[in-house]
Amino acid sequence: MTPAEAVYGFPPAALALAAADAAQVSPLAPDGHAIEALAAGSLARMVVAAPAGTIERRYALAHALRALRPHGELIALAPRDKGGARLRRELEALGCAVNETARRHYRVCMVRRPDDPVALDVAIAAGGLQIAPELGVWSQPGVFSWDRLDPGSALLIECGLAFSGRGADLGCGVGVLARAVLASPRVSELTLIDIDRRAVEAASRNVVDPRARFIRHDLRVPPHGVADLDFVITNPPFHDAGAEDRGLGRVFVAAAAAMLRSGGVLRLVANVALPYETTLAGAFSKVSLVMRAGGYKVLEARR
Q1: Quick one: average pLDDT of 213-233?
Q2: Where in the chain is the domain with CATH 3.40.50.150?
Q3: Does the pTM of the predicted model rise above 0.85?
């Protein structure tokens, strides 16, 4: 892959405008490329909407510097309270001389790739695909709950996932829920769907089962070939690229309803404060509370 310019994420155009033909390398862009696939020293310019997570952010910055040609331009920016306040120091730690400005609650850092950047390999190794010790499975910083079991998912597993027939895991993450579902021999097929390229790659390593198939997809657009299912499970997100978006949960409910056959079942876990009951009632014939504990609730809805 040899573009002249790349962009990571979705920076505000008023703060850092990427070229119209810049290659999108965010793992959350369904049609994007992998930042890891950028050829070393190939780019003249890169714009990075730096992630809020420290390890993930340093990983993206290190890969950007690796991909830039000597003295190539890097513009990195983030909201001040979501990593922006640390951007300058992190770039300096990678060997860069930084010109920093503050605009619209963002910190914007402009650098030229030094001849000899430092510690790139360390940042890339720390932020890459790896075995998360607590989970004991492949994962990567930046994936939802990348290094521990999310309490919502734990509650969903506690309720039992002994389904049968064909199903789907929407927002599958690294495949922890899918592994629990596939423990049932009555499940004939499970489709794991996630927008995050890193999650799908990790899940494909963690769920080694001929009944599983993997789709990288944005559920705001209905996926082809996923229909007439017997069951769907989901721990739906309510953040999009770091910003709260409760509408995503409604998207997941609508997607599940479209995938299920008449009589099919959706099992969903969410924070107790999120009013999914109303959304579910509009798309399903019956909605019931399965369990409520630890600030989370598990709901079941039948088509």
Answers
A1: 94
A2: 5-127, 130-302
A3: yes
